[in-house]
């Protein structure tokens, strides 16, 4: 990509940014993608039967009440205990909450009112 162009709703060029200098800074070329499209594709790839190993299991809108990071175990408010080689907590815009707070602080009990 040599430059990036942003258009108004009327089709007028708002910005035309040359990327020649920026392209020298990065090892790989730029790729522009809508965030929701990227999330959908990553979710599809993670949960698909294709590829090696079992597909990932997503537990959306699940309140995490306890974390055992060394064992890869989390406990949910509904009583479920989940064990995995990798546990990823994604709180959206509140990513600094819940799992990350527990892991950074060394605590195992999660702060009240957090979902992950």
Name the assembly state. Answer: single chain
The radius of gyration over CA amounts to 20 Å
Compute the number of structural domains: 2
Q: Helix coverage percent of residues?
A: 10-25%
Largest sheet: 3 strands, antiparallel
Number of alpha- plus pi-helical segments: 3
Global structural class:
alpha+beta
Topology as H/E string? EEHHEEEH
- Overall outline: elongated
Strand order of the largest sheet: 3-4-5
Topology:
Layout: E1 3-7, E2 13-18, H1 20-25, H2 35-47, E3 64-68, E4 73-76, E5 81-83, H3 98-105
Antiparallel strand pairs: 1-2, 3-4, 4-5
Relevant terms:
two-stranded antiparallel ribbon; 2 domains; elongated; alpha+beta; 3-stranded antiparallel beta sheet; 116 residues
Q: What does it look like?
A:
This protein is an alpha+beta fold and 116 residues long. Helices cover 23% and strands 20% of the residues. The protein has helices at residues 20-25, 35-47, 98-105; strands at residues 3-7, 13-18, 64-68, 73-76, 81-83. Strand 4 and strand 5 form a beta hairpin.
A few lines on this structure:
The chain is of the alpha+beta class and 116 residues long. Helix content is 23%, strand content 20%. The chain is elongated, with a radius of gyration of 20 Å.
């Amino acid at each position: 990509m040599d430059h990036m162009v942003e258009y108004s709703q009327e089709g007028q060029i708002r910005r035309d940014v040359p990327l020649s200098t920026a392209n020298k800074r990065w090892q790989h070329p730029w790729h522009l993608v809508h965030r929701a499209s990227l999330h959908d594709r990553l979710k599809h790839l993670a949960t698909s039967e294709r590829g090696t190993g079992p597909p990932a299991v997503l537990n959306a809108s699940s309140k995490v009440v306890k974390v055992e990071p060394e064992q890869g175990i989390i406990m949910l408010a509904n009583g479920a205990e989940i064990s995995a080689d990798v546990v990823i907590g994604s709180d959206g815009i509140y990513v600094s909450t819940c799992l990350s707070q527990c892991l950074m602080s060394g605590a195992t009990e999660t702060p009240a009112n957090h979902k992950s």
